[in-house]
Description:
The structure holds 2 protein chains of 2 kinds. By secondary structure, chain A is α+β, with helices and mostly antiparallel strands. Chain A contains 2 helices and 2 strands; from the N terminus they run αβαβ. Chain A starts with a helix and ends in a 10-residue tail after the last strand. Chain B has a 3-stranded mixed sheet, covered by helices on one side. The model of chain B is unreliable at 128-135 (pLDDT under 50).
Amino acid sequence: MQNSExxxxxxxxxxxxxxxxxxxxxxxxxxxxxxxxxxxxxxNRLDAAIADGAYVPLVFDDRHRND
Amino acid sequence: xxLIDDERVENAxxxxxxVCKAPGVYRSPGDYSGHASIDAMLAYxxxxxxxxVHLWDVSFQGTNIGSRLEVYKDRIEISVRSDQDIxxxxxxxxxxxxxxxxxxxxxxxxxGNDRIDEMLEKGIIGLASAKNNPTxxxxxxxxxAEIGAVEVLYPAKQIIKDIEQLKTEGHDxxxxxxxxxxxxQMPRFYVATALRQDFRTxxxxxxxQCNGRRENSSK
Lengths: 67, 219
């Protein structure tokens, strides 16, 4: 259990709370057949990607020029 | 259909209306015929709350998570999964930004793993699967944020205009979901949601209930 994906996630969220985290929300696309371990593993990959710098600003360049 | 607080739905629709009128979100206030700008929506939220909002396109292997919102004392972090199509990325961003506009402190929880358990347990995987009649605050928050995002990306007022235009042109008054999804740059699923009669009725009924309560309390 201590090595489970959800246990790893819980430990990291403890650190995040110490950093000042107030709220977290996820947008799940999946069906209700999925196990929480699978979703926790995915969040762990998300955080690992951020730690590895595998991200860029998401800019859509979609602004209307009316201001 | 959905057991969601009427006042929360009204709040989301009003927040969405304010977003639609914000600079750069649409061509002009009231002309919602094109796509909504997510960049301008983000700028509106940043200005309104005077806080840095980081929106990231993150490369990670996944199928379940479209996006994540993290609210810190000094900043907001929104992570969107990179391998989604542009319509889904836009919807993810709009939905997370809606949370910032509509959530209250009672919707907050900084426990990521508990949040996942709760969502899976209650089956809150989007508007289509509200089958377990969610009544808790965090889960209501998910559905209401989606309703608000739908209203930003395809406002009800514009749906009525589009239907009227089809009638004027002598066509059947049935909006093409693929065409609307292309114009509005949003997922077909949420165009279909926006057009569903039960969804529109649900939102309109919540607004009517709230208006009625306001009138009664002012008497």
